[in-house]
Design a protein that fits this description.
single chain; eleven-stranded mixed β-sheet; binds glutamine
Length: 488
């Protein structure tokens, strides 16, 4: 049963071939068996899952099935879940049990999904390998002997879905945290247009960039999940007025003489990527061409400056957002000799090194002597990037580019902070511009590990992004169930 995609499972649930209770039990068995090895969940909720599943079967029996009724999912542990511990993978929130539900998780409850648990991640979503988690890093199920990263920050989500420990999961993408982990685990990761999915109740990292989205095994699954997750929310001031409705299966946008201009970013041509990534990317471009797409070269002049701008803007916003963890209202509190000492002790004990580094960078770039040279400059680069994407989308309908330079790296890789930051080169520009981008598997490298490429579109063109991603998925035709633990 765990080999079914979300779309397939939904059909079987609706036809009565399987029940939500059976499907949920199958996933709980998998969690029992592999959960500790993969370390993909911080908290599992088996009782809640069985109750959700029973309620779902009852709704279906009464003829009131909801759109995703009975599908067992993992929730990134950044989304507040009422009555269920929500940690952001930080010691600061190790024992935090919210009294409210995030809009995205509420939307998924309203769609009938079953909650299996809260997925591991980088602390406060800051990182690329999920190694900054207070609860230890999740493992990539594609290679169990040598422990490889499942990516970050949504690495628990990708590890769970790739390993068959959830049928789909939520993620958040501030600078690549859905797309990078999806790419190196052979999953589909969709970062929608900024504002399509509400940020309310999602632990804030960098509010102007934070974007919830789905992580799934197929593009059709992503369309169904995103439809359930998205929607206008008066509780989020940057929520888009429009919702997103996109039923699977997605219709083709290529073939039968259909016209589509697909852009390739000139500036990325000079970026060093692995031979495998290069070869697979070129193969998929050739496929799109043979299906009738017109390939055009477009320029995003500042795209290589996106990384520098991101690592100013994101830490700046983080330093402000994380000021709330002061030991006074909720979360960890370490008593000091006076108020300031309590702040210091609480924050020194509650935050890990990377989170502290980000707050120090953020505070520095916002200080009066640095504001103009760092923060304002970064804001200008951001504006130019958004304009360049707009101009590029006058010359093409959608853009494609790699998701990463290469395959999953060993968790014990000894990289400097800057080397980690550099891994976000292909993903951060889309967050700065607020445009939708989906990472879709484009093939397997020589070492047997998956690689992904992105489809990027104009704001609110999320559906077409998914449609083109589906063509690439079909062309690549990889089996994205890792042989290690998928019982093959
Ligand atoms: N790797 C990036 C960072 O560390 C992106 C994180 C994210 O998207 N949440 O900031």
């Amino acid at each position: 049963m765990i080999n079914l995609t979300l779309t397939e499972a939904l059909q079987k649930l609706n036809s009565g071939e399987i029940s939500a209770v059976e499907l949920t039990r199958a996933y709980l068995d998998r969690i029992e068996k592999y959960g500790a090895d993969l370390n993909c969940y911080i908290t599992t909720t088996p009782e809640r899952a069985m109750a959700d599943a029973a309620a779902s079967d009852a709704r279906r029996a009464a003829g009131n099935a909801l759109p995703l009724d009975g599908l067992p999912i993992a929730m990134k542990d950044l989304f507040a879940t009422r009555g269920i511990r929500t940690t952001a993978a930080s010691r600061m929130l190790e024992n935090f049990v919210p009294e409210y539900e995030s809009t995205v998780s509420q939307n998924l409850i309203n769609a009938g999904t079953v909650l299996l648990g809260k997925a591991n991640l980088d602390e406060f979503a800051m990182g690329t390998f999920s190694k900054t988690s207070y609860f230890g890093a999740p493992i990539n199920p594609w290679q169990m002997e040598q422990k490889l990263t499942a990516g970050g920050s949504s690495g628990g989500s990708t590890s769970a879905v790739a390993g068959g420990l959830a049928i789909a999961a939520t993620g958040t993408d501030t600078g690549g945290s859905i797309r990078f982990p999806a790419a190196i685990t052979g999953m589909v990761g969709m970062k929608p247009t900024y504002g399509l999915c509400s940020r309310w109740g999602c632990v804030a990292f960098a509010s102007s960039l934070d974007t919830p989205g789905p992580i799934t095994r197929t593009v059709d699954d992503a369309a169904l999940m995103l439809t359930a997750m998205a929607g206008h929310d008066p509780l989020d001031s940057t929520s888009a007025p429009n919702g997103f409705i996109c039923n699977a299966p997605l219709e083709p946008i290529l073939g039968d003489g259909k016209k589509l201009r697909v852009g390739v970013i000139r500036e990325f041509n000079d970026v060093k990527i692995s031979d495998d990534m290069k070869a697979l990317f070129e193969k998929r471009i050739a496929d799109l061409k043979s299906m009738g797409a017109e390939i055009v070269e477009v320029s995003i002049p500042n795209i290589l400056d996106a990384l520098a701008a991101y690592y100013i803007i994101a830490p700046a916003e983080a330093s402000s957002n994380l000021a709330r963890y002061d030991g006074m209202r909720y979360g960890l509190r370490v008593e000091g000799s006076d108020l300031i000492d309590t702040y210091k002790k609480t924050r020194a004990a509650g935050f890990g090194d990377e989170v502290q580094r980000r707050m120090i960078i953020g505070t520095a770039v916002l200080s009066s002597e640095s504001y103009d040279v760092y923060f304002m400059q970064a804001a200008r680069v951001r504006r130019m990037l958004a304009d360049s994407f707009n101009t590029a989308f006058e010359q093409c309908d959608l853009i494609v580019c790699p998701s990463s330079a290469g395959t999953a790296m060993p968790l014990d890789s000894d990289l400097s902070p800057l080397e980690y930051y550099a891994l976000d080169l292909f993903t951060v520009a889309m967050n700065l511009a607020g445009v939708p981008a989906c990472s879709v598997p484009c093939g397997l490298a020589q070492n047997g590990l998956p690689l992904g490429m992105q489809v990027v579109g104009p704001r609110f063109d999320d559906k077409r992004v998914l449609q083109l991603a589906k063509h690439i998925e079909t062309a690549a035709g990889i089996d994205n169930r890792p042989t290690t633990i998928m019982g093959k």
